[in-house]
Amino acid sequence: MENKTNTSQVQKGQSKDSEFISKIIINEVEKGTGLSYDQLKAQYNEIQLFYTALQYVTTTKRALCKAFNIEIPNNCRNKRKFEKAGILVQSKDKYRCPSSGHLANVLSTNPAEFDKLNQPRSVQLKMNFA
């Protein structure tokens, strides 16, 4: 199955870098699911697509939502619901969002990523003054 993403699938008005990141996200999800962008959009509603995509990519909410043209405010609620259910983990550290350029947490619904996301990137020295 060939995974080609045409530019019409990426939201209009995105910068070239943001468009490139969106294509990478889409390609990884297509590869992971074995479904094309159009099949994903037809088969899954926004909540299901948000959850499923995060099994194959670890990224920010904004980058994922832009790639799949999903409403960001709706997925703020869904993110919290998935976190409470223990099926989504948010990174302890903030990373530069590939879509907005701002610092943000990355998300994953892939249990293999949970431990890594729960660990801080830098281990601070603990000074013990006795």
Structure overview:
The protein is mainly α. It has one domain (14-114): Arc Repressor Mutant, subunit A (Orthogonal Bundle), CATH 1.10.10. Helices cover 48% and strands 6% of the residues. The chain is globular, with a radius of gyration of 16 Å. Mean pLDDT is 85; it is low at 1-13.
Give the topology.
Layout: H1 16-33, H2 37-43, H3 46-53, H4 61-67, H5 72-85, E1 89-90, E2 95-96, E3 103-104, E4 107-108, H6 111-118
Antiparallel strand pairs: 1-4, 2-3
Helix pairs in contact: 1-4, 3-5, 4-5
Compact description:
This protein has 130 residues and is mainly alpha-helical. It has helices at residues 16-33, 37-43, 46-53, 61-67, 72-85, 111-118; strands spanning 89-90, 95-96, 103-104, 107-108. It is built from six helices and four strands; from the N terminus they run αααααββββα.
CATH class, anyone? Answer: Mainly Alpha
What's the SSE pattern?
HHHHHEEEEH
Task: Report the end-to-end length measured between terminal Cα atoms.
Answer: 63 Å
Helix/strand/pairing category: mainly alpha
CATH topology: Arc Repressor Mutant, subunit A
Under CATH, the homologous superfamily reads Winged helix-like DNA-binding domain superfamily/Winged helix DNA-binding domain
